[in-house]
Amino acid sequence: MRNATGFKLDTFWNVHTPPKGNRFDTNNTDSFQYGWAEDPRLGQFGAWVNTTHKQVPGARGLFGPSGTYERWWAETDAGSAQRLDSSDLDGRFHRFAINYDGVTKQLTVYYESNLGIKKWTKKVSTPEQLMSMVVTATTGNYKNLQQFQIKRFDFYQSASVDVRYEDEQGRELTEGSVTYPQGAFKGKAYTTEQKKIPGYGFIGMKRGSLPPSGTLADWGTNGTVTYVYRRGAADVKTEKQTVTRRIEYRYRDGQTAGRPALPQTVTQTAEFTRTVTGGRPGPWSPASQNFGGVNTPSITGFTPDKTRVDGITVNAGSTPGTEIVYYEKIAPRVTTETKDVTRTVAYEYEDGVTSGRPALPREVQQNVQFTRQVSEDPVTGQKTYGNWTPSRQTVDAVDTPAIKGFTPNKTRVNSASVSPTDPSWREIVSYRKNNPKVTTETKDVTRTVAYEYEDGVTRNRPALPQPVEQTVQFTRQVSEDPVTGQKTYGNWTPSRQTVGAVDSPEVAGFTPSKPRVNSASVSPTDPSWREIVSYAPATQRGTIVYRTDGRNGVPAKTLHTDNVSGQSDTPVNYTTTDKINEFKQQGYDLVSDGFTKAGGQRFDSNNNVDQTWEVVLTPRIETRSETKQVLRTIEYQYGDGVTEGRPALPPTVTQPASFNRQVSVNKVTGVETPGAWSRRSGTLPEVSSPGITGFTPDRASVPLITVTPTSPDSKEVVKYNLDEQRGSIKYVTDGKNGVPVKTLYTDPVTGKSGEPVSYSTVARIEQLKQAGYTLVSDGFTQPNGQTFDKDKTQDQTWTVVVTPRLDDNTNPAELNNKVTRTIKYQYADGKPEGRPALKAPVTQEATFTRTGERNRVTGVETFGAWTPATKELAQET
């Protein structure tokens, strides 16, 4: 499609496909014939698409591109592209809207993504008022279901005029008809005809009638063209005159065979009409017209002698004739083409691994170049190729570099002979790694059990037992990399071993710290170590147990145990004071202290039974008061967020409701046991929305609500929006020049308080000018435009005043009159033969002039007095 503007939502990426086939072969079912441009690399996206006339290089063959093709080439406007979120590919319908404004020529596309609404806008470069919308879809090379639903079409109404043929009493005489040469669109022409009605004669256009032909000033009905006839009146007819200019295109040498077709001849015509009443012709209408300039079309391989035929102004008597544009052929273009053939010697590891290895040698590129002459015909685009020079070349042999620890599959890449038809190619040299070195490693782990006195004293004591050494051994394989020297270790064998248990020997009068050193599992990663068995004199042991009494929500359990020891019949060096205070800090109260007594506790002399003392505690219970406040906040905002230059918003309203209760707290568990609330519920009263001049709140009040202690805080927002305002622009006559005061048009407008009125009187005033009126005053148009007031009880009105235009009458036949008296001499009997010659006839003339004017609205013509009023013709004897 030519000069097309499109939009696409694209999830299928297309690579560039060059054209082939004929010039504009769109009938072939294979789309690869026409070709297409590459998509932007954006994943799924939305963007504008435009078609422009281009010469597009064709598919590349063995000897280069196969010429260029003339195409209307569709390309994505990458600057407008917006990415689409992959979550949109969800198998659901998404809203999509296209809007075109024929006045501003702005095209807008909206798409509702899962992440929000995306918008694209652009100005469409076209002289037309309307656009044709086409919706298509494709799944590319894949088979899946794509659908769209048309929710709504909105159309603007067409433009039109009405036509009536009436007698002087307003009775319709016959059916009216109107022609729209370029369609019934705003800004296009309309024409009507003055019909011949038997028994009636045309006397003029009705006052207030539209012109017989003109331009449609607006959409909808533009008014009525009314022809008025009188029974038995003199015949009135309309004459037409057509003025034609032709622009022809020719080759200078006259040859056309085998060449591109010449552009079509351009024919420009202008129609003129005039009214002939009683044989007297009126002025031609219009007085003149313009033939627009015409740019000369381009022809590949030829240059025109003029790039443009300029526009001219013609009238009914013009004879512009024929303009001829000549094309001369351009000389062929000769270029030099080069062809590079490259051999690349590349190096790689056979297993593909490079990490931790020596760097591979750099690739060696050996390039040879061939050249030839190419002659291109400027008309057909056909190319003629010469022979390649030289016909063959040789690339040298390349020795393979050495890499430590690796062996190449070839020690040299041999030389090679290359022709210009050979493709570039790669030679691969691969390196295989050498085998590693393998050895065996052993490791010993030893446990030593040693014996000693706890206080270090040995003098005058029995000899201590000798140390016991226990050793286990592990082995593993070690593999050494021949390139890096890095060693790789196998698993130890066995994975674990055990050293046996060792009973502690007896030493008279002393107790060992452990009666037996247990067996131990040993891994190869363990270090050697020592186990110490110490001997100490025999001691007494005791325990102080702190426990709960099982009340106040805490079961009976041991909280803490302190161990004490000492020699028989000696005081126990211990106090419960600090620990009891510590438990009091944790929330306990003391019930009983079974350890503390006057004179303190002492160790007994029984080595077989340890002593035990108990301290009993219970959790402490405390009571506190709790208050809960439920808060509702009412804020006031402007709906559009704008505050500057507007009345101050009402202050925020805060409404609290308070509740109270008693809570019992267990200071140990933290468990709180609440009592009943002082009341079950509270009421937050209704709040009326304050008024703001020029604005309306979205709700008249925030209603009363009931809240409980468990209700969350809440926030209410009242938004103020601009009042809806209405107004009208009236177009009225001033009651002069034969037309009474009346309203011609009333255009309604709507908007918001304080906002500009989106309206212009230009088009309507121009329409009235076309209908024969002159502007008296424009009560709407101001330098900074009009603004809606803030009074929504009274609509605004602006008045535009016009008056009928009076044009001077320039028709000589109506403004000049000649009175002629002819005096002839003759014999009464009519016989001049043989008689004296009579005096020659005498002609006497008297000329009179006057002025006149025509009312363009009513069609009434008014004339002044003849000048002179009388004129005397001389006496003749």
Automatic annotation (TrEMBL):
Keywords: Repeat. The keyword Nuclease does not apply. It comes from Streptococcus oralis. Residues 161-230 form the MucBP domain. Residues 557-617, 728-801 form the Mucin binding domain. This is MucBP domain protein. Residues 237-329, 335-434, 439-537, 623-721, 811-875 form the Mub B2-like domain. Coiled coil: none annotated. SUPFAM superfamilies: Concanavalin A-like lectins/glucanases (SSF49899). InterPro entries: ConA-like_dom_sf, Mub_B2, MucBP_2, MucBP_dom.
